[in-house]
Amino acid sequence: MNKPPRHLHAAGTAEGRLDASAALVAGLAAPFTGTAFGPADPVLAEVCSAGSVTVLRTDALPVPMQREICWWLATCHASGERVVDTTDWKRWTATALEAVAERPQVRSFADLTLAEWMTAWGVKFHADHGRLPAPGSRYRAETALRGLLPRLAIQYSDAPWWKHDVWCLRFDPRIPRREHEPRGESSVRWDDIQPRWLRDGYTFYLYLQLESGQLTWSSVAPWRVFAARFSEFLISRGIDHPALAGDPSGLRPLVLDFRVFLRQWRRGTTGQKERGGPLDDRSVACTQRVIGNFYRAMHDYRADVAAATGDDRWLELTDSHARLYRVEECRTGRVIREADERNYISDADLSRMLACIELLGLPRGQAMTITRDGQEVQVAGLGQPATMRAWLIQALTGRRASEVLLMDFEPLSPVPGIDPAAVAEGGMVARLRYQQTKVDGAPMTILVGDDVVQIIREQQDWVRERWALGPSGTARYLFPRLTGNRKATRAWETGHYDLMLRQLSEAAGLRDSSGRPLWYSHSHRLRHTKATTLLNAGAPIHVVQRYLGHRSPEMAMRYAATLASTAEREFLAMAKIGRDGRALDMDRRDMLDLLQLDRRTDRVLPNGYCLLPPVRSCDKGNACHGCDHFATDRSHLPEIRRQLAETGQLIEHRKAQHLARYGEPMSEANIWLEQRIAEVRSMHLEITALEALDNDTLIRGPGVCGRPGYHDSGPMPVTITSKPEPS
Description:
alpha+beta, four-stranded antiparallel β-sheet, about 5% strand
């Protein structure tokens, strides 16, 4: 953060700063209203660092600066976000005195940017010590001031929240937010979005979206990326007018040019999957859709945006700006990934991960022995017991990381009608409430077993001990962040959580059965694994959908990879019936091998079975009776007799038609008649062979001898037995 937000509407005169700063200290408690702040004071001790021994004196500073420091100390005390080092601030008071002496117009910390203050601090440090400051000293000084300046800019400004260049929920309570925000700790900068009219118009657009509830805070950062891409395009093409083109007829070529620009655009920062890679089709379509919607809104609200930004050029937008893109150009479609068995963690691999998870919670001064690359090694603990418990809850429940990290301190409630003491081992004993922030209207509770309850109780005890809450004390979150959080009111974000899990992954060095690394930080695989386990155990899809917190079955299925072993087991458990609804009296293992119904459903016929291997296909239509891949049994006799009678009637009907049309009988050399007669011979042979049986033996190719040239041969009985059980 190099400079505070723009739009500081408060007067820059001494009188203006004096009046504005007076509002900051109105109503502050006594310890924060003086000019001397000593760490020995019981109240100030709560906000001062443990190493603070110096008394901070501000009486030599201009009155606005005195009040700003009072307000800052009170703010840090109330929020619990920061710990103040009085030694660092003693240096800043000395630096401020030097700055005021050189530039009398400086009366407030908000009168200079952070970069200007750091320059003044470096000059003062060099004057006092005769050398340049060490990087660590400079970082501590910058950290001390960085939290104050953007907050002062907001306090001193009478502009709406959306006009500030830094959006942060902690800085500005006016920004719309949900009760629990997964990215509540993040901030979004707008000062690098150029031209200025784009920055003003786009922030006004997001203001409308957030205030109306059509957009949530978590989406602001991704939507800023779309604006940044459009900004680069405008700068590269030298466009500096909201209308984009002097004539509406020039809009279409311009938006097509923007698409070409996006196709050629390369990421300038590190991404999750690629570094500097191109945008895929979905990213291009999303960018076009957002920019198209932005201009549609600007057209509809052009009078409002012109008044809000003070730029009347927005009034020049036409109907053409409301339809920059055709619908099909912005259609991204709903991406439902295919179930991928690689996202499933096998029981053996998960057991190995659970065996090493203790490393995460082990104190840093202790070590444990693990097997890495076939050798036993001693690995030091990482000292993160809360992270360990959060991962275990993910593994046991299949919740998303954000859903676990944002859970209330007391997320458990009893299940009506269930006595936990009477529940058998492995049964559900409590209801767990998590924070569902991704899908509106989705369920936010699941039933959990005693293992999850015990982990939560351990985490509660750990939080009470670390924050000295007492035996019955509570915090806002079950997993409070460990730094800048003296009052345990701020939750962890997934970024720090993933960082700790990556460190564990590198320390454990686990690999799966295929040799791929087992990353604890890929914790979403635990969700896939839980969904797959439930489905493979026979849970109905609507139950799994409810458990995962999805609104549609297809979303639940994207997490489910039906394992090959499970597919075979479920096939063998099913009752087999033919196309005509009759049960098939055949060993199910043979049926699985022969028919492979999970891939081919055309092998069960009304009059028997097709024994053609699954990898082969048949192009002979219904000519099954004379095929040596056709098998049947006595249960199909009625169907074969019916087909024989119908075929005989068809032959007589066609013969009569032929005689009426041509005046002569149909010759037996007629190709159609020859094929039908062969089928009749085959069916007679099948009926004869099946009537001769006294059991349900399956006969393969009983009608083969009905083919031309096979008249003198007889049927060959084939008995299909069950394959041996695997040893």
